[in-house]
Amino acid sequence: STWANLGLQDSASPLMEQLIFFHDHALLILVMITVLVGYLMFMLFFNSYINRFLLHGQLIEMIWTILPAIILLFIAMPSLRLLYLLDEINEPSVTLKSIGHQWYWSYEYSDFNDIEFDSYMIPTNELANDGFRLLDVDNRVVLPMNSQIRILVTAADVIHSWTIPALGVKVDGTPGRLNQTNFFINRPGLFYGQCSEICGANHSFMPIVIESVPVNSFIKWISKNVNS
Ligand code: CUA
Known about the structure:
Layout: H1 14-44, H2 58-86, E1 94-101, E2 104-108, E3 116-119, E4 141-144, E5 148-155, E6 160-164, E7 169-173, E8 179-184, E9 189-195, E10 208-213, H3 215-227
Helix pairs in contact: 1-2
The structure holds dinuclear copper ion.
């Protein structure tokens, strides 16, 4: 996201792409309903009361009951499709475990021994000139692009939420529970996220940074960190 971006961020995963399509679809229906109802309400002001003896209108009531139900189906069906698609796990090649703390994230790469680290926000007074304030962290999550990635989210103290808009991921980390989801990053780059459960005084200061790299670079990063 850059300055004055009021819409959704550009997607970096197929699921987020689908979420954006669904958002646009729902918004289009919303605009059409608003325009129609707005037009009807406006036109009522100029209505001359010619139907003084009108007592019932069975047909019109049938139409304006069933029609909205059909319109709602056009939103409900794609919504359900997406809901189930988001929870589908497709043979993940890497599993990342992220644990929410007050107020930082810690990560474990359970597939590879001994790789675990904490990830703290960089305070404004220590920020590099090209850093993003309240968004950059000291230790980034390095993940391979073009691979199915499973994340397991939990928390150590209170409820947190591991949320990355560009990847379409938003999972609560709850103490005593382990939540699972998965995603597929389809381009390299840095993807920023923030905690999105109100978790205490420093809720705003526990960001997430994903560094999406080619698989070769990921393997290099893993082998460098396993040895140390
Ligand atoms: Cu952790 Cu809000």
